[in-house]
Amino acid sequence: MNPAQEYPKVYLYRRIVQAKLFIDAHYADKIDLDNISDEAYFSKYHFIRLFKTVYGKTPHQYLKATRIEKAKQLLRQGNTVSDACFEVGFDSLSSFSGLFKRMVGQPASAYAAHYQQRQDQKAKTPLAFVPGCYAYQHGWTENSNFEETEPHPAG
Questions:
Q1: Residue 75 burial by CB count (10 A; 0-12/13-18/19+): exposed, middle or buried?
Q2: pLDDT tens per residue, the chain (155 residues)?
C-alpha cells in the first residue's frame, strides 16, 4: 500500500508544506534533497513527486528560485554581487552568476545597476512613475492646473 492510500491527503500536504517552510528558513545553509526529504519524513523520490505536484517545481528548483529571489533583494539593498552570492548559500560565484542570468535574464551586476538607475530616476522625476489614470484622477497631469478640477460637492 502506498503512503497516499494510508494517510489522508491533508496529512501529506502538511508534510510537504513543512518541507517548503524548511527550505524557506534554511535556504542560505548547505541543505540538499536528503535534508529536505528527511524534514518531511518521505523517501527522496516520493518526496520529489509530491512536492512537484503541490508546488509545480521540484524541491531543488524551488530552493534555487528562493535563493535567487533573496539575492535579488540583497542586490536591491546595495550589496555586492559576491556578498549576495555567498549570503544566499552559493559556494561559487560563477555558478551563482550563471544561474542568476538564466533565471532573471540579465547578469546580477546589470540587475543591480538597472535597479539603482531606476531608483535615481524615481528620485529625480517621481511623477513619471505614477500611473497616468491615478495622476489624472488627482489632477496631476502635466498640463493641468488646480482651476480645472471640479469643486468637491461637500465643500
A1: buried
A2: 555 557 677 878 888 999 999 999 999 999 888 888 888 888 889 889 999 999 999 999 999 999 999 999 999 999 999 999 999 999 999 999 999 999 999 999 999 999 999 999 988 888 788 888 888 888 777 655 544 445 555 54
| Type and span of the H or E element at 90 | none
Q: Considering only CA atoms, which of 11, 87, 82, 16 is closest in space to residue 53? A: 16
How far is residue 97's CA from residue 82's CA, in Å, rounded to a whole number? 9
Q: Characterise 128 by phi-psi region: left (phi > 0), alpha (psi -120 to 50), beta (else).
A: alpha
CB 84 within 8 A of CB 73: no
First and final C-alpha spacing in the chain: 74
What pTM value is reported for the model? 0.76
